[in-house]
Amino acid sequence: MSLNSFGRVFRFSTWGESHGPAIGAVVDGCPPGLAINEADIQPFLDKRRPGTSKFTTQRQEPDQVRILSGVFEGKTTGTPISLMIENVDQRSKDYSDVAKAYRPGHADYAYDAKYGFRDYRGGGRSSARETASRVAAGAVARLVIPDVDIFAYVSEIGGDAIDYARFDAAQIDENPFFCPDPIAAKRWETLVDGARKDGSSLGAVVECVASGVPAGWGAPLYAKLDSELAAAMMSINAVKGVEIGDGFAAARLRGEQNADPMRPGPDGLPLFGANHAGGIAGGISTGQPIKVRIAFKPTSSILIPVDTITREGEAADIITKGRHDPCVGIRGVPVVEAMMALVLADQMMLHRAQCG
Amino acid sequence: MSLNSFGRVFRFSTWGESHGPAIGAVVDGCPPGLAINEADIQPFLDKRRPGTSKFTTQRQEPDQVRILSGVFEGKTTGTPISLMIENVDQRSKDYSDVAKAYRPGHADYAYDAKYGFRDYRGGGRSSARETASRVAAGAVARLVIPDVDIFAYVSEIGGDAIDYARFDAAQIDENPFFCPDPIAAKRWETLVDGARKDGSSLGAVVECVASGVPAGWGAPLYAKLDSELAAAMMSINAVKGVEIGDGFAAARLRGEQNADPMRPGPDGLPLFGANHAGGIAGGISTGQPIKVRIAFKPTSSILIPVDTITREGEAADIITKGRHDPCVGIRGVPVVEAMMALVLADQMMLHRAQCG
Amino acid sequence: MSLNSFGRVFRFSTWGESHGPAIGAVVDGCPPGLAINEADIQPFLDKRRPGTSKFTTQRQEPDQVRILSGVFEGKTTGTPISLMIENVDQRSKDYSDVAKAYRPGHADYAYDAKYGFRDYRGGGRSSARETASRVAAGAVARLVIPDVDIFAYVSEIGGDAIDYARFDAAQIDENPFFCPDPIAAKRWETLVDGARKDGSSLGAVVECVASGVPAGWGAPLYAKLDSELAAAMMSINAVKGVEIGDGFAAARLRGEQNADPMRPGPDGLPLFGANHAGGIAGGISTGQPIKVRIAFKPTSSILIPVDTITREGEAADIITKGRHDPCVGIRGVPVVEAMMALVLADQMMLHRAQCG
Amino acid sequence: MSLNSFGRVFRFSTWGESHGPAIGAVVDGCPPGLAINEADIQPFLDKRRPGTSKFTTQRQEPDQVRILSGVFEGKTTGTPISLMIENVDQRSKDYSDVAKAYRPGHADYAYDAKYGFRDYRGGGRSSARETASRVAAGAVARLVIPDVDIFAYVSEIGGDAIDYARFDAAQIDENPFFCPDPIAAKRWETLVDGARKDGSSLGAVVECVASGVPAGWGAPLYAKLDSELAAAMMSINAVKGVEIGDGFAAARLRGEQNADPMRPGPDGLPLFGANHAGGIAGGISTGQPIKVRIAFKPTSSILIPVDTITREGEAADIITKGRHDPCVGIRGVPVVEAMMALVLADQMMLHRAQCG
């Protein structure tokens, strides 16, 4: 059943808890002969790394990745690639209250209901720290599909959206919010800082685009490209919604508005007049850019007291001390990119398996 | 890789094309000893059946299911349950144009790009007809989780939403739209009929609720209940978006607004003050109702000409003759319910495997 | 978990019971564009078909296969291929005793212990009749690997082995035992007929060779080619042992005897001086013929009374009336060939997925 | 496809090469609440550990296991258990010849044919060192099925078999061969030492028995208990044959000889008169002890020169310097036990999933 694995052919598994000695990923099925070393992975981890601005958690983790297997003389061998990241800056003392009472919005109660007890330190396995393992695995996935270009950005925080007329991809890495609209990025400084000072938190919407995917990746019917992407994105902590292409907005269009008309293109490929479909039809890529939109709820760890119950079922209230992201969607950007890369690498190989 | 299977423990596979001799599902891993016969499955198929009102396709299919294996003396034996539905009312002649040119919004071009050719009759494998197999499998799944109550309804068609103040579950089966708001249902008659007469089509939003799910189903991290539901729903034809609980609206809330506060309840279980999370935290059920929202795009088969290209890459325009749903989301309701049942039956068994 | 499926990329599932209306297989992941029709499958089923000589069961089954999906205009489409074989000559009345008491050597007791009850007619799901579905699926698999030549034969019945000095592949289809040694085949007539008249049964050894497999198929470590073959063969009814290459005899060799020395060959490939390894090293094919040896126990259905207990736990004795193979290993030959084809088709595609 | 994972519900993956920094296993799906720490795993690793007698390789590896995740306050949490063993005594210089030419019987040529190159140090991923990871995972599996007793032993080395009349389980741990017959153990000292001094190697047969398995574990048809065991055992390095119960000897019995007659037993369970079936009928356990027999070929690493070719295809001869087991089957004993435990833990959970 592979509770902690993802992918069909290019497949990765993650392990580790927020406050254990380390976290990691094992990538299985990677093609042989790809040039790789730790320096190819580290930049993606650095992008996700906490403690880089006042808008993210102040936990200081170097997130230094080690390759423990599957690479020989700088190339992948085709055997499992074991990636390990040590946990350095755990402060278990912060979590004493959490051991006793459930934080609403967190997995605390659900874990106790399922397993009978839980590793309460920093959320244990349910901590967003696990996503560092995905980012490391995603860096490997990118090497498998070198012609695919993937980028994500935050398009909305706390209901305040970017202006697409000002969209500038070059801006994304120029501000702490991965925001392509510099005016919105300015507004968000105030917004996020305000939430942080209030001990509150904000939700966000992340958008991800993959271009360079040829027509033909994906498969009917339960391995559809959009179905895999939905599973991948919804598995990220705090994600509550996924849209492909126009998503919910498509439900408000008429058939003729939603059609992506085709005309003969210069290179024998179709020239599409629109991309309402987000690059996927019938679960299979059309050659247009793949577009996914993801909703992150506000961080559940807040300093404002919320009604709850204790493990013994008594009424209590709880605040979540410790160091938390006021808007977990921001650091979701590299995670979304990693999941996109992981799904596409898998689908490329799956396609190659069946169609040669 | 199981391209056409879904589920981990309670697992089903579907096969069949729109215009082949039959379609079907094989359900594997079903618990033994459950009382079942064709009459337990048929009502769900009847609910999805085409040709029952002028708001759905006029194709006439009795959708009579046969159980070919896995049941002995009226009880499941624990071996695979093979379910077959014969195709009766195929009219292959309607699809001659489709053989030559690609219908925008359909899988035609993507299938050709992937496989080199396609069964163009009625969309072949990409036809929504496949969902009848899911509905049959879903009827079996319901027997596995008898204490779970599942229902879905249409909450919006063509951008016209129900008024939740008028929500009446008893109304859902009283109109051809599975609409819980009788006033909206009236409006939709005009709306859908208008689109049909225009040769156009409309999108829709379907909502699904499962109550009676105990806390503890689901699993970290890539087998999360919400991740499985997202994959399940996104695998349905024409679906472009999935939300759990508040979904994208959660991205606009602050942490303290989005928390679902807990208080001690009368029976030792928590009493939740809200259900923004849609019954799932950390990928595991909380005991609250599971809530999912699904966006269906407008049917791509329309009578309004759209620019396209032929298989040879020439410019053309195309209209889709034949018999089609003006709003495919309507008949999506029993399919969404089936997928919910299939995911939950699987998760119940998965939970039992690990936690006894 | 896919209890009734096999394969990773080229994947098939079977369903059906001995005395239900039909049995069948669904083949998923098949490459598109392969020419196929029922006539390509039927000869393999005919080879396995009961009632063709007095040395096999007298049940008369035409075993006519129907392709219900996945093929369009005579070519595979890449979607699931549903294959169905109707059961024609069931005689359920033969099995009344079996309903009450357990046949030693059969699955009766184990099924009851697991599921609480069982379809006792002809062994239900545990009947060797299921292997017809595998043979049908195997015929499809052969199309995926057209350059691989697969054949199997019986090398031993009831302890009486062929003389390899007389091995003649052309003889295999010239006698009812798939025996490559015509002298042994003559002896076996008397041997098997004697066992049949005694109401007893005999075991057999089947050997299978696949040539034309290039070096490089298979994978470490739990997808090893030999591991997959062992699972495939051991899943066949009545199989109790599997050997690759020299098998148990290798355990009696010294390292230098067991080595398969290599010399440069005429075409740039190695020329091997022996094939103790059976064509597999480290779980990966070496380019030599793949060799597997399979032990079939004697048919458990015999007319000689055996001590047993009833469902209520009372002492009883039982004989198995009905029509049975005196040596089930004989009809195992086309099943073993089918499993070889199914494993190799899968491994070819798996290799293509990872290594391009 | 999970090339390096095994199991359906209780599932483990291994990673690592002979001469990399470490090897390890990730166990996924383990039930929560089981008491465990490193000291529960270490004795099994110590049993497999090299360098403990002159009859095994002289490589000195402490094989100290670390638990990196999935355990909190001494109990399994239900999340992945990451187990790591550092490689300490690598001597990469020993393997320079191996880089240039292929060792017959080894995976060298097959790996190069598949992947284009290979980590030649100590066999890389194909080294038997990987089995330490299995032994660690197997120690966890044993905790899941505490009522099952598993033991294995060597029954034959180099064709010299034990005398079953002298079988004494208490002797197994009293000699360096895991031999239950003290007289045979004495003979093997001379035998194995002779092979070692000759620079040669010997094959072996290992037998494994699991008692305490209740009737009902296992499943039709491709998840049969015997099929899973065959795959598990055949995945171990150097294994070339697997038998369940009487195995190939059953092929020489008549039906009435091979039947395991049943009589009412004292506790409501059947009392079996024999166990030819090895505790499995129809792929499902019968309540009798599970019996498996496994053939290990002689170690391919020998000091006697063998004809081979270089990577460039030139004729050469090769001897394998370095430190090797003269009989790899001996250290196979704890590995076989581990695989038995891993299969049974998985099957128990699989049974619980379906049958409650």
TrEMBL record, chains A, B, C, D:
The keyword Repeat does not apply. It comes from the Bacteria. Keywords: Amino-acid biosynthesis, Aromatic amino acid biosynthesis, FAD, Flavoprotein, FMN, Lyase, NADP. It holds the Pfam family Chorismate_synt. Reduced FMN (FMNH(2)). FMN binds at residues 125-127, 237-238, 282, 297-301, 323. It catalyses: 5-O-(1-carboxyvinyl)-3-phosphoshikimate = chorismate + phosphate. NCBIfam families: aroC, PRK05382.1. Belongs to the chorismate synthase family. This reaction introduces a second double bond into the aromatic ring system. Homotetramer. This is Chorismate synthase.
